[in-house]
Amino acid sequence: MARTHVSGTFKILWKPKLGLDKEGDRMQEAVLQEEVHEEKIDLKLWRQILQLAKPYRRYVVFAILGTVAMAAGDALFPYMTKVAIDRFIVPETTEGLPLFSVGFGILVVMQSLNVYIFIKMAGKIESGVTYTIRKVGFEHLHKLSFSFYDKRAAGWLLARLTSDVNRLGEIISWSLIDLLWGGVAMIFYAIVMFTMNWRLALLTIVVLPVLAVASVYFQKQILRAYRNVRKMNSKITGAFSEGIMGATTTKILSREEENLQEFKTLTGGLRASSIRAATFSALYLPIVLMLGSIGTSLTLWAGGNGVVAGTITYGVLVAFASYTIQFFEPVREIARIFAELQMAHAAAERVMGLINTEPEIQDRPGLKDEWPYLEGAVEFENVSFAYNPLEPVLSDFNLKVRPGQTIALVGETGSGKSTIVNLACRFYEPTSGRILIDGVDYRERPVKWLQSNLGYVLQSPHLFSGTIRENIRYGRLQASDEEVERAATLVNAHEFIVKLPQGYDTEVGEGGGLLSTGQKQLISFARAILADPRIFVLDEATSSIDTETEMLIQDAIRKVLQGRTSFIIAHRLSTVRSADVILVIRDGKVQEKGNHNELMAAKGYYYRLYTNQFLEG
Amino acid sequence: MKSIRILWNYMGKNRLLYLGAILSVGLASLASISAPLVIRITIDNIIGDEPLAAPLLIRNFVENIGQAFWVPGIVLIIITIFRGLFMFLRGRLASQASEGIAKNIRDRVYNHIQHLPYKYHKEADSGDLMQRCTSDVETIRRFLGVQLVEMGSSLFMVVLIISIMLRADRRMTMLSVITLPIIFAFAILFFLKVKKAFREADEAEAALTTVLQENLTGIRVVRAFANQDYEIDRFDEKNQVNRDKLYHLIWLLACYWGGSDLMAFFQIALVVISGTYFAAQGEITMGTMALFTTYIGMLVWPVRQLGRLLTDLGKAVVAADRLQEILDEPREELVENSEQPPVTGDIVFDNVCFGYEPGQRVLENVSFEVKAGQTVALLGHTGSGKSSLVHLLARLYDYEEGSIKIGGRELKTIDKRWMRKNVAVVSQEPFLFAKTIRENITLASGNVDDEELYAICQQAAIHDVILSFSQGYDTLVGERGVSVSGGQRQRIAIARALITHSPILIFDDSLSAVDTETDVAIQRALEKRSDKTTTFLISHRITSLAGADLILVLDHGRIVQSGTHDELMKVDGPYARIWDIQNTLEAEIRA
């Protein structure tokens, strides 16, 4: 009754259907960035992960009970054959057969029940653990500062909380339980075999060490080969993505042939590495079987002689023939899981690394929750800042902004404009010096105090999937429909919104792909104005918008700025002109400062920048 | 049936390899079922003294070995070696075949996609296309490489075992197969039913991923409105749904495996008990009994597999259909004629009409004339037809009426790819490939020496930026390399266009993300270039257009104004109006 054990094949049978194997496609860059870790298993790390599985202790206990019972059942099946032969066939009697049948029936029902419990509990643990790790991870993501996000691509982070967490969940549920099954089953098999006939048992397990070594070697090679396949696969996914997204570019450049050649190299590589991986797996099972057949042959030889000599019963011989084959199954399982555990280590490290990252910006301990109304006075006091210690971006920066003033920041990309804004918003904190909000160092207040009074409109407005109404309401979740529409009307968005087929209930599509850039900007202004922030930050876009929409936007900006302290990374002339203070930033320093008329009179950099617009006029 | 023919066609030249794999499957199955026979013979005929019902050759062999038990042992090992060999061949050949097939499909689909017309790509849902190119190909590969072979192997086993069983004992055989149809049907029914649960689990995970992704890309927006708690709740909701759907799915599977195990174990128990009964009654030999108890295990599990595999056939068929939909899209006719006349920048539009959909004209009776070396500026609303007009020049679309003459030749008679090699287009949101910057710039030009490359990049005002990257021109662009801003991207694309020295150059709003100062620098550099190049400029920044030799103002596909800046400024029309709006401050500066 050699059968492939349910838990081992189970994963292979249904996991692909769940779509979990698509991780490679979805997270292509994750695989590319996946450094090859193959160190020894770090116990501390796994202990921490097991901590996260703590709420599911109850299920773990049941899973263990089910697994142990299942291993016992597996060990009992060949034994039943032995009993049948020695008890009934050889003595040629059917006396007691009904009782035997009942016993067998009970075993059958028990074993099916064990299988059910085992899978159900593993399912509870897997779904629960992935849920918990994801929840903890997501909540932690919202505590981390922007410096963390600046260093990591969104795709990389996404892969941590999707494919890596899935892998961890699988490992903790299926792999650990399978490992347990393997260990327990081996012990049970050994016990039954040694009680039946210890000499024969010894002969059978002679090949065991060889099998163990071969299994460990092959499982490692197989996993490594498949990892290569995954890497190649993600490259091909990347190439497909380029081929599709860049199809029009390819056409314009007439580059179809060259692209196809490059693509063929990739697919050829994938074919080669896939065949290599398949060859390794195709080699492994025959080797196991051959080793197994040596065990069976030895049993047959010694057992046959034993039966003839009368030292061994027929039943024992037949049962041993089954055990020699079955005994190898747990060994293979254990080897597979150890290989998997080593590979999963990298995933575990990345996920836990994310959860263990200390947020750089945290509230000081012991801050109370209630704080006064934020007026909007901002003061930079000898502020220096560097993203990394070797390259200071800002040094000894001083600026005093009264409530309601508009500050325009002008300068080239990389000059430090955004840094000033990021510091003012407390997305970063100064390396040295202080930033005072309403006369108090903002580090003495909770992060939320400032940030809940902040409005922020980005260069490329980011909308969430959902309707336009939901997107505007994002500014203040409690706002009524009337308030949403009032905000939209104020920034000139109402008119185009009601013209859409579904009006405010139009889905914006992922990333707002269905709306034009100008429309998205207007919606993001409505969102900001609904939030009614005390401090407003605008990163103006240089994007190309036709003149009429441009005028609507300028009008919207004017309304949004009214009565708020504002920082604007400015590109539009009208906004620059009407600012109370214009700062021309170059290489992290304020090169010019003043209002429009003062700077024009100074005939410096600002003057040149400004007049350039009209040089051809 | 059509889909199965499609799958058959995909196999192509790999059919022979496949045949080898199937043959190996058969031989491996044969070897695996003969191992229990050896055990049976050992028990019945070597240890016991039952007469052996076998061909004379085997009978003689068995009689000759007497009680030398090492002989069946060796025979068993030899059989296993054969079995192993064929199993290996099966795996190896099947993977060679399926990987070859997958490669062919991938190459074919990729190439086909590249050759689909411009219009197709403008309207295509790229996510859906991606899905088809990756998951669907993968589904077919897995089906051909693993599932089909497994199915063949299971079928072989079932047929061979039942026929051997029948020879050994008819009544026992009947008892051995009694629940098999039920197990088989149960598997098929279950996996058909459970599809919904699989889909729901997939969808729940996708929904979760969407929220996560939005949070990661929009983290600043979330923080700026202090909506962290709201997002955490939103995520938790999706996370819970995902957890419950996943658990529900696994629970269904637990029911299935538990249920089908119950039936399978029941079948095994039935064979063991009835075998015992018959053997005890002396109706069958002990060897036969041992044979049945071994074979029943080899029979039950493949039958269960078979049911599941059959439901996978459905998925492969759907995947093949979805791929075929792409392959059935007509390709763009590239070599309808192979005329490759020298292309110059002398362009004449004569009453050109064009529309993407029949009856909806995007361009209406457009006529104008440009001489080589001149600059044409196009101004108009979004959707006024500016981009369509320049796309006609690159033969990305074909005009319906009227005529376009390039250097005196009708555009339609010139080879499309030849035309594209002579028209350099820079779009507003240019696409860069995941290659180095140098490779990206020289994509269309082939190898260029450094001196020229640098000169071109200086004209495009991007040279200094490139040098500031750690790896200079060898810096990788994209996810794995440096991320370039929109303006830098546009300038790299401009360099990519300039380096081809095409006689016709099109800037389709391609300086929009560049600051004014750089814009001016690039315009100056362009003016200094050879006066043979005809340049088309599309921009909303009216000052960028003012220096053109010919300014065309488009509205709803018609040219409403044309002339030079000075001419247009004299008339009260859209050009002068837009100019005034954008330059309300002009007077102040001049003052």
Per DSSP, what share of the residues of chain B sits in E-state strands of 2 or more residues? 5-15%
Helix/strand/pairing class of chain B, anyone? alpha/beta
CATH fourth-tier homologous superfamily of the domain at 37-196 in chain A: ABC transporter type 1, transmembrane domain
Strands of the widest sheet of chain B, in order across it, are 6-7-8-3-9-10
Largest sheet of chain A: 6 strands, mixed
What percent of residues of chain A adopt helix (DSSP H or I)? 55-70%
For this structure, the CATH topology of the domain at 37-196 in chain A is ABC transporter transmembrane region fold
pLDDT < 50 runs, ≥5 residues of chain B: 585-591
- Extended strand count of chain A: 10
CATH architecture of the domain at 37-196 in chain A: Up-down Bundle
Strand order of the largest sheet of chain A: 6-7-8-3-9-10
Oligomerization state: heterodimer
The proportion of residues forming helix of chain B, as a percent range, comes to 55-70%
> And the CATH topology of the domain at 347-590 in chain B?
Rossmann fold
CATH class of the domain at 37-196 in chain A: Mainly Alpha
Shape of chain A: elongated
Quick overview of this protein structure:
The complex is a heterodimer of chains A (617) and B (591). With 617 residues, chain A is α/β, with parallel strands linked by helices.
What does it look like?
The complex is a heterodimer of chains A (617) and B (591). With 617 residues, chain A is of the alpha/beta class. Among the domains of chain A are: 37-196, ABC transporter transmembrane region fold (Up-down Bundle), CATH 1.20.1560; 198-311; 464-532, P-loop containing nucleotide triphosphate hydrolases (Rossmann fold, 3-Layer(aba) Sandwich), CATH 3.40.50.300. Chain A is built from 24 helices and 10 strands. Chain A has helices spanning 6-18, 23-26, 28-33, 43-52, 57-89, 97-141, 146-151, 154-196, 198-204, 208-245, 247-253, 256-309, 314-326, 328-356, 417-424, 447-451, 468-473, 481-490, 494-499, 517-531, 547-561, 573-578, 596-602, 605-612, and strands at residues 378-388, 391-401, 406-410, 432-437, 440-441, 454-457, 535-539, 565-569, 581-586, 589-594. In chain A, helix 5 runs antiparallel to helix 6 (97-141) and helix 8 runs antiparallel to helix 14 (328-356). Chain B is of the alpha/beta class. In chain B, helix 8 (180-193) packs antiparallel against helix 11 and helix 11 (228-280) runs antiparallel to helix 12. Chains A and B meet through helix 1, helix 3, helix 5, helix 6 and helix 8 of A and helix 2, helix 4, helix 5, helix 6 and helix 9 of B.
